[in-house]
From TrEMBL:
Residues 22-42 have a biased composition (Low complexity). Residues 1-63 are annotated as: Disordered. CDD domains: ENDO3c (cd00056). SUPFAM superfamilies: DNA-glycosylase. Residues 7-20 have a biased composition (Basic and acidic residues). It comes from Streptomyces monticola. This is DNA-3-methyladenine glycosylase II.
Length: 355
């Protein structure tokens, strides 16, 4: 009998496994939204979704360069936004509540031409306004860079056009949710409330896409559900005041941006920050500067003058050469990525649902 330390018999050699073929890398759905209102849209191939809308798909060829991620990115409220999805085939999906009812829109850009399909009662409304959504009412040629940083970003981002959705509440309500809290907290509240009280997006929309609630449903949300979503009473009350006069606020989409902001600010709790964030999207306002922002003045001051502690007054002074195009200038500054080094802690998160 062999001893306990006897050498074990050698195992027969295993045949070599054949090498697996290398799989092509697939474009992934966007997970992050870049500061400056850009959503990364994968460069996909064929959209791969059969036409199911009434009639033929709509096509629109923009008069110049167009970047879907830059144009539609500001409409996305965080990576989990139930009303917005950028998919691996290069399509952007939006679920909207139109004057004709809920609708789902899918847009893809192929060889310089935008192709769109839509589903639901609001399909025709969305398709008829495809050019405006993609910036047809915008005039990017009117913009003249006045600073080297802005000029460099302007050259690198020729596809930036300002969207005009023609819908006020869908931008107003999430902007109210973003008042005085971190973006993560606001995105979470929007996601939870839309998924619970909205309705599934019509048509073959990606999984878990929802249309935001109608004004009546917003009014019926119990106080404890606002609390669970992390929305304090001040912001919830502002939203309730806004949806009570929803038709009057939606009229602002047809006004000049300045008059539209004035209309929105008649509602207590809606100030210049919220109204600017809204009309930038609903009205395509190129000069609507976001004042009252925690970070923007410092970013603009640092980018244009090397000043880390600029306030709103100083920001407006630095943006004065761009009057008429100040919002567009701020977009280019944010997209440049030039931001001051962080010297103070981030804004603390407050989960009121645990209080």
């Amino acid at each position: 009998m062999a001893g306990r330390f006897a050498q074990k018999p050698e195992r027969p050699e295993r045949p070599e496994r054949p090498e697996r073929p290398v799989q092509p890398v697939r474009a992934r759905t966007t997970r992050t939204t870049v500061r400056g209102g850009e959503t990364r849209v994968p460069q996909g191939g064929s959209p791969g979704v059969p036409s199911q809308a009434d009639g033929k798909p709509r096509h629109w060829t923009p008069p110049g360069p167009l970047d879907l991620g830059l144009v539609l990115g500001p409409l996305r409220r965080g990576p989990g936004d139930p009303t917005f999805r950028a998919t691996a085939d290069g399509s952007v999906w939006r679920a909207s509540r139109t004057p004709e009812g809920p609708g789902t829109l899918r847009v893809a850009l192929r060889a310089g031409t935008a192709t769109a399909e839509a589903w639901g009662p609001g399909a025709d409304w969305l398709l008829d306004r495809l050019p405006q959504l993609l910036g047809d009412a915008d005039a990017p040629a009117d913009f003249e860079p006045r600073h080297r940083l802005v000029a460099a970003t302007h050259r690198r981002r020729p596809g930036l056009r300002l969207t005009t959705t023609g819908l006020v509440l869908e931008s107003l309500i999430p902007s109210i949710l973003e008042q005085k809290v971190t973006t993560d907290e606001a995105y979470r509240a929007w996601r939870l409330l839309v998924r619970k009280y909205g309705e599934p997006a019509p048509g073959p929309a990606p999984d878990r896409m929802h249309v935001m609630p109608d004004p009546h449903t917003w009014r019926m949300i119990p106080s404890w559900e606002w609390h669970r979503a992390g929305v304090d009473n001040k912001r919830a009350s502002t939203i309730l005041r806004a949806v009570r006069v929803a038709p009057r606020l939606e009229e602002a989409a047809a006004m000049e941006p300045e008059q539209a902001q004035e209309r929105l600010e008649l509602v207590p709790g809606i100030g210049p920050w919220t109204s600017a964030e809204t009309v930038q999207r609903s009205n395509g306002a190129p000069d609507a500067v976001t004042v009252g922002d925690l970070h923007l003045p410092g970013i603009v001051g640092y980018a244009l003058a090397g000043e880390r502690d600029a306030d709103d007054e100083r920001m407006l002074e630095l943006l004065e050469p761009y009057r008429g195009q100040r919002h567009r200038a701020a977009r280019f500054i944010l997209l440049s990525g030039r931001t001051p080094p962080r010297r103070t802690p981030k804004m603390p998160r407050t989960d009121i649902a645990k209080l």
